[in-house]
């Protein structure tokens, strides 16, 4: 499979070590780019058009919900599926995740890199 045929995934996580692990497990099947902050994420989404976003909730003092609100207000960008990976999954139980375009919520403390790959495969 050439890079042209690979679906695009944007990974947003400020934990560089964790990001590297996820990139390594995804890169054989997907074209993947990663960033640690929301400003770069917005630029990449607009210029690169990923088909899936995998993101942590807490990002250096900000939350992914800032970005997701912006995406949901755009008719095209709001259709990009989102997988959330977080250590605070229990605190998100009262939030309507679908309203933010979130397709899946994974608890970082309980998942393996293979779980990330499986989530991507289910969506793409």
Would you kindly provide a written description of the structure presented here, covering whatever features stand out?
By secondary structure, this protein is an alpha/beta fold. The protein has one domain: Rossmann fold (3-Layer(aba) Sandwich), CATH 3.40.50.2300. 34% of the residues lie in helices and 24% in strands. It contains 4 helices and 7 strands. The strands form 2 sheets. The protein has a 5-stranded parallel β-sheet with strand order 2-1-3-6-7, sandwiched between helices. A two-stranded antiparallel ribbon has the order 4-5. β4 and β5 form a beta hairpin. α1 (16-26) crosses α4 (113-123). The two termini are 15 Å apart. The mean pLDDT is 93.
Structure at a glance:
This protein has one domain: 3-Layer(aba) Sandwich (Rossmann fold). It has four helices and seven strands, in the order βαβαβββαββα.
Fraction of helical residues: 25-40%
Helix run count:
4
Structure classification: alpha/beta
Number of DSSP strand runs: 7
Order of helices and strands: EHEHEEEHEEH
**Average of the residue pLDDT scores:** 93
Question: CATH top level?
Answer: Alpha Beta
Shape: globular
- Poorly predicted residue ranges: none
Largest sheet: 5 strands, parallel
CATH topological fold name: Rossmann fold
* CATH homologous superfamily classification: Response regulator
Number of domains: 1
Distance between the termini: 15 Å
Strand order of the largest sheet: 2-1-3-6-7
CATH architect. name: 3-Layer(aba) Sandwich
Features:
two-stranded antiparallel sheet, 5-stranded parallel sheet, 24% strand, alpha/beta, 124 residues, Rossmann fold, 4 helices, globular
């Amino acid at each position: 499979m050439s890079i042209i045929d690979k679906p695009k995934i944007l990974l947003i996580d400020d934990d560089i070590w964790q990001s590297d692990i996820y990139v390594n497990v995804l890169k054989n099947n997907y074209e993947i780019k990663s960033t640690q902050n929301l400003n770069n994420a917005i630029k990449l989404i607009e210029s690169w058009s990923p088909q899936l976003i995998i993101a942590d909730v807490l990002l250096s003092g900000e939350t992914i919900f800032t970005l997701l609100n912006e995406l949901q207000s755009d008719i095209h960008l709001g259709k990009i599926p989102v997988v959330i990976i977080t250590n605070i999954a229990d605190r998100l139980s009262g939030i309507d995740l679908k309203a933010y375009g979130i397709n899946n919520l994974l608890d970082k403390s309980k998942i393996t890199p293979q779980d990330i790959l499986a989530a991507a495969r289910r969506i793409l």
